[in-house]
Amino acid sequence: MKIMFLICLFSTFAISTNVSADCLTNDKGEVVCGEGKCEKDQYGKVYCTSAGGGILRDDKGNLLCGVGRCAADSLKKVWCSKQVSGGAAIDSKGNVKCLGGCAPGSAALCTQAKAE
Fold first, then answer.
1. CA nearest to 101, candidates 85, 86, 116
2. Are 27 and 47 in contact (CB under 8 A)?
3. C-alpha atoms less than 13 angstroms from C-alpha of 93 in its C-beta half-sphere
4. What are the boundaries of each domain within the chain?
5. Residue 79 CB: number of other CB atoms within 10 A?
6. 71, 88, 103, 107: least CB-packed within 10 angstroms?
7. CA distances (Å), origin 89, targets 29, 41, 44, 72, 97
8. The whole model's pTM is what?
9. pLDDT digits over 33-79, tens only?
10. d(Cα 19, Cα 31) in Å, to the nearest integer?
11. Bridge-partner residues for 65, per DSSP?
């Protein structure tokens, strides 16, 4: 029984620490990559978040990032976990709940991906 518990615990840890980079084609046709999740803005420029971070478009179409995953509340305001790789989800009342607490999404935390 203890062995199964340890295997489940290790598997959960391994899955939760799996952070992957993202690559997209930008407005010039170049493939660009970031440490974390990437999205294109309305002009085709690619912006990425840091490893373990989140990126989400607000109600005006602006890309906002956080150090953890992001979600939009019922008023379309973007909230992101304050914890790297931390989760964010919407509850039944339309409020965002985040692991480690929530912070507003920020354009300053998004980085434009460059071709290498």
1. 86
2. no
3. 3
4. 20-112
5. 26
6. 107
7. 34, 23, 27, 8, 6
8. 0.79
9. 999 999 999 999 999 999 999 999 999 999 999 999 999 999 999 99
10. 20
11. 55, 106
